[in-house]
Design a protein that fits this description.
The protein has helices spanning 13-43, 49-56, 74-99, 106-130, 150-160, 166-190, 197-215, 221-238, 243-251, 270-295, 301-309, 312-340, 350-359, 365-375, 380-406, 408-419; strands at 6-7, 59-60, 72-73, 343-344. With 438 residues, it is an all-alpha fold. The chain has a single domain, classed as Na+/H+ antiporter like fold (Up-down Bundle), CATH 1.20.1530.10. It has a two-stranded parallel ribbon. It has a two-stranded antiparallel ribbon with strand order 2-3. Helix 3 runs antiparallel to helix 10 (270-295). The radius of gyration is 22 Å and the shape is globular. The model has no long low-confidence stretch (mean pLDDT 86).
Length: 438
C-alpha cells in the first residue's frame, strides 16, 4: 500500500543536520543585516543625513581601464559587486539541493518550487492592479514585492524564539533559494535596459574556464577568484546585471565528489566546500553592507511617511508583500496538496502554513535591489520603494510573529519528538521511520 506524500515532513537526517548548520549561519547574517539597515535608517533621519548620502554616492574605481567603466559609487559596488557573492552562495545551495539534497526527488521539489512561483506571481499581479492607472512608470516596479529575504525571516524567528519544526524551516530555506533564482532571472530578463553582446559573449570565456577548473576539483583561490572577477566585470559591461555572473559561476561547481575521490559517499563536494568558505563573507559582510547602503531613506517624520505611503508604488509593495506573498505561498501549497493528494505532516495544520507564508513577505534585500533597478538610485520613487519595502517587511514580521507564537506550544512538542533518540545511535527516531514517499 502506498503511503501518501507528507508535506513539510522532516526529510532525511543527513539533509536536516546540514540545513540546520546553514540556517544558523543565515540567522546570524540576518541579525547583522538588521543592524546594518537600522544604522542606515537612523543615520538618514538625523541632521547628518547628508554625510550618509555623500558616503553612499562616493565614486571609487577607474573611469577608463582598458575601455571598462568601473567608476562606481559605493552603493553601486554593494548592489552589483557584493550581491554577486550573495547570489553565488544562493546558486551553490540551489544546485546542492537539486543534485544531492532531498529536492532531487521531484515529488519533494514540487512544493517549494510551486510555492516560490505562487509567491512571486500573486504579489506581482497585486502590485500591477494597484498601479494599473498610476502612470509615471509605476508599473516598472512590478517585481519588487516578489522576493523573500531568508536571512531577515530567520532573524525574526530567532527574535521571537519560536520552535519552528524542521520541515517548515527547511521549506522556508528552499523556497527562498528558488525565489532568489527566479528573482535573478527576472532581473536579467526584465531589468536589462541595454545589452552589449560582445562583452556578454566574452563573459562566457572566464565562466567556462572557471567551470573547467572546478570540474577538475581545483580549489586554488588565486586561480578561481581572478576568473570570477573577470566574469563579473564583463557581465557588468554587457548591461546584464552583474549579479547574474555569481549564479552562472555557482552552477558550474560540482556538488558530489568524483569517483576517483571516493564518490558521493566520501564527504562534501566542492560546492559545499566553497559554500562554507564564501557564506561567512556573504552573510557577515556583503549583505549587511548592501543593506546599509540601500536602507537609508529620509522619512521626514509622520508627514513624510504618510506622503511616501500615499504613493501607489509603496501601496502596491506593501499589499504585494503582506497579502500577495501569503496568498501566493499558501495557495500554491494548497494546490499541490489538492492535485497530488499529498497530506500535511500530522504534526502541522494549515494555520502553520499561513504563518510561514506571511513570514515569506519579508522581501528586503532583493526587493531593494529591484527597486533601485526599476526607478534609479536616489530617485523619489526609489525612496518610496524603500519605505514600502520596510513597511511591508515590518508588517509581515509582526503578523507572522503573532501567528507562529500562537502555535509555539505545539512546536515545542514537535521539537521534543524530533529530538528523541531512544536507541541512542545519534540519529533521532523520526528520521528512521519508513519513508512517507515510498
Amino acid at each position: 500500500m502506498t503511503v501518501p506524500t507528507r508535506l513539510f515532513s522532516p526529510g532525511s537526517w543527513t539533509e536536516a543536520s546540514r540545513l540546520a548548520v546553514v540556517l544558523r549561519k543565515e540567522t546570524v547574517g540576518g541579525v547583522l543585516l538588521m543592524i546594518g539597515a537600522l544604522i542606515a535608517l537612523v543615520w538618514a533621519n538625523t541632521p547628518w543625513s547628508g554625510a550618509y548620502d555623500s558616503l553612499r554616492d562616493t565614486v571609487v574605481g577607474p573611469s577608463d581601464l582598458l575601455g571598462l567603466h568601473l567608476d562606481l559609487s559605493l552603493g553601486t559596488w554593494a548592489a552589483d559587486g557584493l550581491l554577486a557573492v550573495f547570489f553565488f552562495v544562493a546558486g551553490l545551495e540551489l544546485k546542492r539541493e537539486f543534485v544531492a539534497g532531498d529536492l532531487r526527488d521531484p515529488r519533494k521539489a514540487a512544493l517549494p518550487v510551486a510555492a516560490a512561483v505562487g509567491g512571486m506571481v500573486v504579489p506581482a499581479l497585486l502590485y500591477a492592479l494597484v498601479n494599473l492607472r498610476a502612470g509615471g512608470g509605476a508599473l516598472t516596479g512590478w517585481a519588487i514585492p516578489t522576493a523573500t529575504d531568508i536571512a531577515f525571516a530567520l532573524a525574526v524567528l530567532a527574535v521571537i524564539s519560536t520552535h519552528l519544526p524542521t520541515g517548515l524551516r527547511t521549506f522556508l530555506l528552499t523556497l527562498a533559494i528558488v525565489d532568489d533564482l527566479l528573482a535573478i532571472t527576472i532581473i536579467a530578463v526584465f531589468y536589462t535596459s541595454t545589452l552589449q553582446v560582445v562583452p556578454l559573449l566574452l563573459a562566457l570565456v572566464p565562466i567556462a574556464l572557471f567551470g573547467v577548473l572546478v570540474q577538475k576539483r581545483v580549489r586554488s583561490w588565486w586561480l578561481l577568484l581572478p576568473l570570477a572577477a573577470v566574469a563579473w566585470v564583463l557581465m557588468h559591461e554587457s548591461g546584464v546585471h552583474a549579479t547574474v555572473a555569481g549564479v552562472l559561476l555557482a552552477f558550474t561547481v560540482p556538488v558530489v565528489r568524483s569517483e576517483a575521490a571516493g564518490g558521493p559517499d566520501a564527504g562534501p563536494g566542492l560546492a559545499e566546500h566553497l559554500e562554507h568558505r564564501v557564506r561567512p563573507f556573504s552573510q557577515g559582510f556583503a549583505v549587511p553592507v548592501f543593506a546599509f547602503f540601500s536602507a537609508g531613506v529620509t522619512v521626514g517624520g509622520l508627514s513624510g511617511l504618510g506622503a511616501a505611503l500615499s504613493d501607489s508604488v509603496a501601496i502596491g509593495i506593501v499589499v504585494g508583500l503582506v497579502v500577495g506573498k501569503t496568498v501566493g505561498i499558501a495557495g500554491a501549497t494548497w494546490l499541490v496538496s489538492r492535485f497530488t493528494r499529498a497530506q500535511l505532516d500530522p504534526a502541522l495544520g494549515w494555520l502553520d502554513v499561513i504563518g510561514l507564508a506571511v513570514l515569506g513577505g519579508m522581501g528586503f534585500t532583493v526587493s531593494l535591489l529591484i527597486g533601485e533597478l526599476a526607478f534609479g538610485v536616489g530617485s523619489l520613487r526609489d525612496e518610496h520603494v524603500k519605505v514600502g519595502v520596510l513597511t511591508g517587511t515590518l508588517l509581515a514580521a509582526l503578523l507572522a510573529s503573532v501567528l507562529l507564537r500562537l502555535r509555539d506550544r505545539r512546536y515545542r512538542l514537535v521539537a521534543e519528538q524530533e529530538a528523541r533518540d531512544d536507541d541512542g545511535d545519534g540519529v533521532p527516531d523520526v528520521y528512521q521511520r519508513p519513508s512517507a514517499e515510498s
